[in-house]
Amino acid sequence: MRPFYKSFCWALFVLLIAPSALGQDNYKFENFGNKSILLNGNVTGSVSDLGATFYNPARLALIENPGFTINAKLYELQKIKIEDFLGNGFDVSDSDFNGLPSMVAGTFKIKSLPGHVFAYSFISRMRYEADTDFDTGLVESDVTDIYPGEELFSGRIILDRKIKDEWIGISWATKLKTNFSVGASLFLSTFENKGYNRSRYTAFTQEETSIIYNTEIGFNQKTYGLIGKVAGAWSLPKADLGVTVHLPLIGIINEGSFRYEESLAGGGAEYDRFTFNNLDNLDSTRRTPIGVSAGTGLKFGKHTVHLNGSWHGKVSEFDSIEIPPLESETEEPPELQLTTQYKDIFNFGVGADFYLSDRFDFYASFSTDYSPVVKNATLVDVLNDRGDDINLSTDYLHYGFGINLASKWADLTAGAVYSKGQTDFISNIEFPLADQDDIGIASIEIIRWRFVFGIEVHLFNKAKKDLGLDE
């Protein structure tokens, strides 16, 4: 009976939940700031919007007219295709259209600190939520070896997945020379990583015996911490240069909980089971690596070519939630771990800002986004019935393009980013209805379109200047 249950859980997990896990640990999966999004974040040395709070806060002192930025709205069209999911030649696919993380930021000055620029920012660093409620209906098939022949059975499976990382930050910058500035950003990160699965499975055998199998499995990790960035920026006649050091997370509050219930009745004393574990106040850990980004904006007349490279260090293995030995009334329960580990990664990219007129610019960009994942903690680690080391990660290539329409009062930005990634994983499927139970290699292909429509308003800066508040 368990193979049938595991098969449906796995199928739903991969189609509806895995896409989030296949990007949440990548460092360039999301970008912020209207122009910076179209340039795929290749702006460490040349950021010209309030994405500077994220990419290089030192640039705040060099940007001529930083205003009030709203990533008005970002949308995502994502398609996932899995080849050889349930065996050779058996493919599945799914597509979805969602809103994406965004950013709101603005600048201000303090009269008692002339020459210093400050900014605030609210960044949805990661926001993903998916849920499904699947009912098999009444099906007739041989789903268990406990009794001979085919059974009438029905199953219902509920899967929920939520990942959220919200940043609230303050940034500062000042010029040490006419063409050189330093800056820093400090963000409060509120992070939640949550997975939940509940299933109900009933079967009626040819011997007129009922079998009932229920499970409830879930975890919830919450972390509150501080993330800092320190940076420098240079403005030269033919190029802008910049470097940013991304500091590791300093955890302040860490909370973890885990729930594991399993019961089976009707199979006889040899098969019946009862397990109940509801664990709160578990030790929880979240770690992020140190990183360094460097970039330049090469000026060719009024055109700019942006070059960028970034390195993030490795993170040694740790338990996102430390799950103690589980207890069971009928059998030895499984030993479960939610383990995370990262390797060091280098990414690079290039972008171009083509000047067409005083009001119109065209943007194009390319960036790598290699996954650092060695191990990552997801619900699949709990649902996996074989104990295989299954880690969901993928490498992406991002391509961006769009336009910026400038006016005296605001900049309007519109464009899209196309991303593609592919990875192989152990399918780990036993699927009686498909008459096969082989372990094979399945391939996940993810295609993602992100559409951005944003506005950066200069009206507030002009009004402050007119009132004498910006002097």
Structural summary, described in words:
- This protein has one domain: Porin, CATH 2.40.160.
- Helix content is 9%, strand content 57%.
- It is built from five helices and 21 strands.
- Strands 1-3-4-6-7-8-9-12-13-16-17-19-20-21 form a 14-stranded antiparallel barrel.
- Strand 7 and strand 8 (210-235) form a beta hairpin.
- The termini are far apart.
Mean pLDDT: 80
Uncertain spans, ≥5 residues at pLDDT below 50? 1-8, 385-390, 427-439, 460-471
**CATH level 3 topology:** Porin
- CA-to-CA gap between the ends? 74 Å
Report strand order across the widest sheet: 1-3-4-6-7-8-9-12-13-16-17-19-20-21
As an assembly, this protein is: single chain
Please give the number of β-strands: 21
Largest β sheet strand count, sense and barrel closure: 14 strands, antiparallel, barrel
CATH level-4 homologous superfamily: Outer membrane protein transport protein (OMPP1/FadL/TodX)
**Strand percentage, roughly?**
over 45%
The CATH architecture: Beta Barrel
User: How many individual domains?
Assistant: 1
How many helices? The count is: 5
Derived structural class: mainly beta
Listing every helix as H and every strand as E from the N terminus to the C terminus, the arrangement reads HHHEEEEEEEEEEEEEEEEEEHEEEH
CATH class (first level) name: Mainly Beta
Using only C-alpha atoms, the radius of gyration works out to: 26 Å
The level of helicity is: under 10%
